[in-house]
Amino acid sequence: MTSDVEKDGTHDATLVDFRGKPVDKSRTGGWLAAGLILVTELSERICVMGIATNLVTYLVGDLHISSAKSATIVTNFMGTLNLLGLFAGFLADAKLGRYLTVAIFATITVLGVTLLTIATTIPSMRPPPCTESRSQQHQCIEANGRQLAMLYAALYTIALGGGGIKSNVSGFGSDQFDMNDPKEEKAMVFFFNRFYFCISIGSLFAVTVLVYIQDNVGRGWGYGISAFTIAIAVIVLLCGTQLYRFKKPQGSPLTIIWRVILLAWKKRRLPYPSDSNMLNGYFDAKAAHTDKFRILDKAAILEDNDDKNNSWIVSNVTQVEEVKLVLKLIPIWATCILFWTVYSQMMTFTTEQAIFMNRKVGSFEIPAGSFSTFLFITILLFTSLNERLFVPIARKFTNNIQGITSLQRIGTGLIFSMVAMVVAALVERQRRSSAVDAKTQITAFWLVPQFFLVGAGEAFVYVGQLEFFIREAPEKMKSMSTGLFLSTISMGFFVSSLLVSLVDEATKGSWLRSNFNEGRLNYFYLMLAVLGLLNFLVFVTVAMRHQYKNQQFIATNDNGEA
To answer: What pTM was estimated for this model as a whole?
Structure first.
């Protein structure tokens, strides 16, 4: 790949300033622009995590919905939010650009949180309060369809807005750094860590301050603060318009993908050319030709009378190789899903576990949702250590500017998640034994180890995945690749919903009960640990075979083909 960096400090032609002119690197981009963009992600995390981590207590405690159904509502909400990121990424790459997409979807988020504030404030949107004795006998009146309608409308409006922010804000932030400039490339390595640091700070504020306000002052106040925060972020984003570097939308990446696949199918009976340099656009390719997924090369075979510039008749090598790059991401994508299934338990069943444990510190009772604080403290700790300790040390041994590769980060996180589920199962067995046999509640601080392990795993997996998908995807598909990354989180939540439904059906409700003392949640955790081990073995196999984009280019050059 070639660089178009000029002596006057301008960037390549796909990046422009707010006037649409080629960027001047001395006046745009860098940490100031990236910092303003990080404010948007910080606010999105405050908003979404302030809702997700404590929503299950509202559904169970105020709306009297069963534990299994409540967990499914939360995981479906988070799954949809991340899945919609794929749609928003496609929209940004094809038409709107990342900046405009972030601004529009952040505004939608403000609307959604405002609706949620109203839905949880109006008394008629909740069923009558239920006494503890009626609750133990399962006689509480569950929220009806009318009461849930506004809640669902608010949640899925937030999901739409949050997905639009998440899939584009990291790509927009990375656009502020030039990967062809060694100094800016090094800064971008730290951008991903600081991006995730902001996510963790926002989440930490949400599960401490906002959860406390929701439980002790009122849901309306807690959600109202979230709406105000995201509104301020929109203003900050707009104020930095003159400082940003904007990447021009380069057409629908999905169109390129299905067109290459369609042409390869149409030309499947044609023989391969005797030499790959006979493929259309070989010598002008912006991506080195590779032999993987060779069947797709047929899309670039020129026939007699073909117009080589008509992409509907014949693809070029650049387009074919871009589709190959996307296909190479799929195996890694699939093996990352189960980590987020484990992670989703921290927002649902682990939060509910805290309700059945002793949460008092002196006379103060910690809200059940606030125990997620330990998750985010761990993430902050490992993110900071990663930047200041792990990466510098790893660089000395690997001579890699990243310290360790993105796939090594992901693998480390998967190991943490497996251990976390084993620990969670042991803690739940002890909690249940104490509650049923000894009639005592063990301290909720026994949940800290599983929060710590999942938090450490997330610090590795999130940064590793984000970096992997952004670096390995074709340039013009960066937002869609971020959406693809977010869809692994989405699928993780949906898989959790599916597993909860299947386990509840298979065990006839004996494992997952609203009263955890009557259920066997520890078996569910052990099942996730076993699934995690099998998934890890598949991941290692796939990761060992993966060839990074820059390695692929170097290898091709060494073979004298580019």
So the answer is: 0.74
Does 503 or 369 have the greater pLDDT score? 503
Residue 136 has pLDDT above 70, yes or no: no
Q: How far is CA 272 from the centre of its chain?
A: 40
Structure tokens at 258: 């299905």
Run of H or E including 365? strand 364-365
Best CA proximity match to 240, nearest among 45, 30, 89: 30
Read off the pLDDT of residues 380-433 as tens digits, 9 standing for 90 and up.
Answer: 788 777 767 777 777 777 666 666 788 988 999 999 999 999 999 999 999 988
Q: Hey, CA dihedral for 209, 210, 215, 216, is it positive or negative? A: positive
Cα separation, 427 vs 169, in Å, equals 38
Residue 7: pLDDT band by 50, 70, 90 thresholds? very low
Interacting residues of 432 by C-beta distance below 8 A, sequence separation 6+ = 516, 517, 520, 521, 522
152 vs 140: CA distance, rounded Å: 21
SS3 304: coil
Q: What amino acid occupies position 468?
A: F
519 CB-near residues (< 8 Å, 6+ apart): 510, 511, 512, 513
Contacts of 33 (CB under 8 A, 6+ apart): 176, 240, 243, 244, 245
Q: Are 245 and 28 a contacting pair, CB within 8 Å?
A: yes
Q: What share of the chain is helix, strand, coil (3-state, %, to 5)?
A: 70, 0, 25
Q: Which two tokens stand for residue 367?
A: 């809200």
Q: Which of 492, 491, 516, 162 is nearest to 345 (CA)?
A: 492
Spatial separation of the C-alpha atoms in residues 269 and 113, rounded to whole Å: 55
What string of DSSP letters covers 531-548? Answer: HHHHHHHHHHHHHHH---
CB 58 within 8 A of CB 219: yes
Cα–Cα dist 562/557, whole Å: 5
Q: How many residues does the chain have?
A: 562
Q: How far apart are CA 299 and CA 422, in angstroms?
A: 49
Nearest to 354 by CA among 341, 376, 373: 373
Q: Which two tokens stand for residue 383?
A: 């993110």
Backbone angles phi, psi at 364, to 5 degrees: -95, 130
- Furthest-apart CA atoms within the chain: distance in Å: 85
Using CB atoms within 10 Å of the CB of residue 559, give its burial: 0 to 12 exposed, 13 to 18 middle, 19+ buried: exposed
